[in-house]
Structure formats: structure tokens, C-alpha cells
Amino acid sequence: MASRKEALARRANRVRRHIKSVANGRPRLSVHRSSKNIYAQVIDDVAGKTLASASTLEKDLRGSLKTGADTAAAAVVGKLVAERASKAGVTEVVFDRGAFIFHGRIKALADAAREGGLTF
Length: 120
Fold this sequence. Notes:
Low-confidence stretches: none
Order of helices and strands: HEEEHHEH
Distance between the termini: 36 Å
Mean pLDDT: 95
Helix content: 40-55%
Shape: globular
Structural class: alpha+beta
Largest sheet: 4 strands, mixed
CATH class: Alpha Beta
Radius of gyration: 14 Å
């Protein structure tokens, strides 16, 4: 039997393979969540560069958030990454949820990024 880590990696690769096939040159908004924090970055796979990123580990966010592991923190990170992406000239992305199910913190981040101006 495969370990949990291998199963998560396999699921993430399956999702990422599908996303890259439908991306049509759009950058992807990649999301990772841990038990204590959430991270988001807009990645241009053609150039291999990160265009914008945000996480709950940033100094200005750590002071204002109660914890980095709730939907409120995810919403703040979503708005921040959308704001930074728009400054970099990105408005359309594909959403890469990785191995995570689209609910809870992942959904809160996606909804906040949509409100912030990103379309996917």
C-alpha cells in the first residue's frame, strides 16, 4: 500500500496534469495548506517563474490574524495574492488546488481571489 505522502503527491500530480492541459498559457494559482498556515502563489509555467505570492507567514499578516489556519486567514491571503497578481498584470489564472479538496480554507481563498479581481 502507498503511504499517505505518496497518495497526496499522486493526487496533486493528477490535478496538475489536467490543469496544465487546459491552461492555454494562463498562469496557475497554486494553493498549499498546512495545519497552521496557508500559502498561495501565481506561477507562470512557461517561463518557470513565480509572479505573485502571499501566505499567512508574512510579518504584516501575522500580527493582524488570530491564527493562520482558518477561513478568515485564507480569505485575507486570497485577496492579497489577487492584489499582487493584478499589479503584476495577471487577471486570468487557472486554479490549482493541489491534493486538497475544494472546500473550507481552499474555497475561502478562491472566493476571495475572485473578489480581488482574478478570474478562473
